[in-house]
Amino acid sequence: MALKLNNLPFQSNTYPSFALPPMASLRSPKFFMASTLSSGSKEVESIKKPFTPPREVHVQVMHSMPPQKIEIFKSLEDWAEDNILVHLKPVEKCWQPQDFLPDPASDGFDEQVRELRARAKEIPDEYFVVLVGDMITEEALPTYQTMLNTLDGVRDETGASPTSWAIWTRAWTAEENRHGDLLNKYLYLSGQVDMRQIEKTIQYLIGSGMDPRTENSPYLGFIYTSFQERATFISHGNTARLAKEHGDMKLAQICGIIAADEKRHETAYTKIVEKLFEIDPNGTILALEDMMRKKISMPAHLMYDGRDDNLFENFSAVAQRLGVYTAKDYADILEFLVGRWQVEKLTGLSGEGQKAQEYVCGLPARIRRLEERAQARAKQATIKPFSWIFDREVKL
Ligand SMILES: [Fe+2]
Ligand SMILES: [Fe+2]
């Protein structure tokens, strides 16, 4: 799920959005690449390559978790088996995309497709822009599996590692894979979108990767995934609600069933972080503060379709306007997580830990205040064409 929020002045700087790191404004399409080599690296001018989408530039910190903390995750192997793997669903009990799509082997296929297309015709372009953005985000799944496997102490070392952490990551990926498949096939059949442009965007996005700034640390990584799973739960839930409002119960069911998976994944990831708070409250509150100061960048923030250098921002603006994912949701997620992890009740923290606790607990209210001010200043909505819908224009 990938969304940008409104332009909000936040902390001491004015960032273009929560979704973009501070240096994003330096990006120049196709000429700068994020250097991935080591901390302290600076922007480098890359050779213009046809497969290089716009990149963001900032220092990338690596392996920030002290190596001795890797032991914590090794010692949690059995705990993860009993407490985390139980949130996976056995394959035989899982829904599959085919359960929600016309059956190409049945005589009724043509008729079912005609009905699907008739329903899709009643849905406005702006909805499709958001649904396409959500689908593209889901389709960049290889990037998210890669991201999880950057995390020290929990990565899948072989590709078929028997550790609980590796089993989780592979099975999580396998569950998530159904999301992009289902939305992709639905959108293909709908006839309302430019599949070739969408497919190009997916190719660019996977080639581009993502930069969640989790520094190989499972503390940061699992805070990030907790946030993200809840963000996707909210946004798929909202596309379900809107589909229903547009009279398409079948599409509502599609979005709803995906949202339910996201909720289950959120439960697992938040449980991991809850455990970290129990074992290492100080280290975990500092990690939460760190992620929140950097802001949670959305997984598809490097999205590009070969044409629109502000595609992600434009898509996010439509999602914000339709109420699919908003600045308020960002604050709500943080507030929810702070409550879920009982951050306010943490005791025995270091001075630094107490400051982090104070910062994190005060942040949701702060974000909301800034959001209200930004709304008050909001300019007239502009109109943009989206290649995903054959350059038809949509209000941002
Ligand atoms: Fe998903
Ligand atoms: Fe997810």
Automatic annotation (TrEMBL):
GO molecular function, one term: stearoyl-[ACP] desaturase activity
GO terms for biological process, alphabetical: defense response; fatty acid biosynthetic process
Main location, first listed in the record: plastid
UniProt key word Chaperone: no
CDD domains per record: Acyl_ACP_Desat
Transmembrane segments: none
GO cellular component: chloroplast stroma
Binding site for Fe cation 1: 138, 176, 179, 262
Keyword set, alphabetical order: Chloroplast, Fatty acid biosynthesis, Fatty acid metabolism, Iron, Lipid biosynthesis, Lipid metabolism, Metal-binding, Oxidoreductase, Plastid, Transit peptide
Cofactor: binding comment: Binds 2 iron ions per subunit.
Cofactor: Fe cation; Fe(2+)
EC numbers: 1.14.19.-
InterPro entries found in the cross-reference section: FADS-2_CS, Fatty_acid_desaturase-2, Ferritin-like_SF, RNR-like
UniProt KW Iron keyword: yes
Subcellular location as annotated: Plastid, Chloroplast
Binding site for Fe cation 2: 176, 229, 262, 265
Family membership: Belongs to the fatty acid desaturase type 2 family.
Cited function: Introduction of a cis double bond between carbons of the acyl chain.
Subunit structure: Homodimer.
This protein's name: Acyl-[acyl-carrier-protein] desaturase
